[in-house]
Design a protein that fits this description.
CATH superfamily of one domain: Peroxidase, domain 2
GO cellular component, one term: extracellular region
EC number: 1.11.1.7
Order of helices and strands: HHHHHHEHHEHHHHHHHHHEHHEHHHH
CATH architecture of one domain: Orthogonal Bundle
Protein name: peroxidase
Helix content: 40-55%
Number of helices: 23
CATH class of one domain: Mainly Alpha
Structural class: mainly alpha
Organism: Dichanthelium oligosanthes
Radius of gyration: 23 Å
Largest sheet: 2 strands, antiparallel
GO molecular function: heme binding; lactoperoxidase activity; metal ion binding
Distance between the termini: 33 Å
Length: 502
Amino acid sequence: MPRRSASLRPTSRSDGPSLRDCLSDVGPLALRSSLIVGRALLLVGRRGPLGCDASILLNDTNGEQSSVPNAGLVRGYGVIDNIKAQVEAVCPQTVSCADILAVAAHDSVVANKNLDITDMVALSGAHTIGQAQCLNFRDHIYTDTNINSAFAASRRANCPMTAPNGDTNLEPLDVTTPNTFDNAYYSNLLSQKGLLHSDQELFNNGSTDNTVRNFASNAAAFSSAFTTAMVKMGNIQPLTGTQGQIRLLCWRGCDASVLLADTGSFTGEQGAIPNKNSIRGFNVIDEIKTQVEAVCNQTVSCADILAVAARDSVVALGGPSWTVLLGRRDSTNASKDNAERDLPAPSFDLVNLTKSFSDKGLSVTDMVALSGGHTIGQAQCRFFRDHIYNDTNINSTFASSLQANCPRASGSGDTTLAPLDTTSPTTFDNAYFSNLLSQKGLLHSDQQLFNGGSTDSTVRNFASSASAFSSAFTTAMVNMGNISPKTGTQGQIRVSCSKVNS
């Protein structure tokens, strides 16, 4: 079994600072990759009308979670529950829920002080992703005059004038690129297409107009200002939208080989067909590595950082947590050819998928559970074109909707993106499996998991039981994290994740 190693450990090294101590800031950095969960924790931490006593965490009868300011907005309860469970395992009945809540809110956004007007406008740009409920923008689209009339009319179709009709209906805060972290939010404001009253106030003949114009015309200026403001808020670096996602699969071995840039001696994995223009976020890992190196020089590998960041990104998006075994070392080479040969292809049928996972020591249940990682992320048209035009095991309406943005002819629209999970594309849940039951798998390989074969019953189980999926997924992630790890004297601890040590 190539993937097992007793050298990986959940605790610490004996020859220096604790790995987990050194990684204590990596978790929050990855967690803050989700502004949605960051805001959820902040809201939970801030909304305590009866005092800071964690009363908001109590489920109904007639509790605070369903009160008007909180209903549908304050979330992250599951995250708090997970933290509490882990704390209780170490210190039973010692740390209160109120203290956990305070720390979580503090970690989500540290001390909202020393922020200037530019910081305010930059941080408002986080509305480039996310949605708002009708009850929060109704007045703006019906009463305000500083709103584009066509934009207002289109919002009214989903948000009736009379409350509470449609109160919880959602609209994207950024109508132009709702799933991408960019500067389109500011261009929307120039066109009077801010969804919230408070959004449009930033461009309404006031002191912030020039800043909005600057950010709308200069993405680099916005990115720089946003980063500065985020550092002020919590000494963090945003890990968002355009910086891409951390892929959950480490197939060649969890040795951070994918982070290596091409050199004169090898062509790395980043340009391999399954990865090109798909796997990103390398600069974010470099930022995390820089901060870790400042505290624990050549102690924490890039491979361990990737493993922890992948776990915390799943948690940040609403998914389960698991114990990440530590002690991996980094590879000193990478191979484009190996990546193209070994990674499961979107065109694989069930037989090929099963063999691909089995060759790595992973079970059929592991395979189906790990495929559930497609509950987040997107795929390019070139990877699902054959499925939506040629396969018969696909919902016809679903296929037609995808064909509108993915032309049949190769070379046209190849890089156009579609969410792998159309139901809840930015939430880690079990909706992916429900989609398969409805023949709405985006990739050929996705739908093969539910196509009259041996994995049908597992898909049904995961679709009907979120807890069954979460349990299987965490087990599979631990199993996959142990695929051929480099330990002991193998490899090295890279100082920079993108290149081998000189």
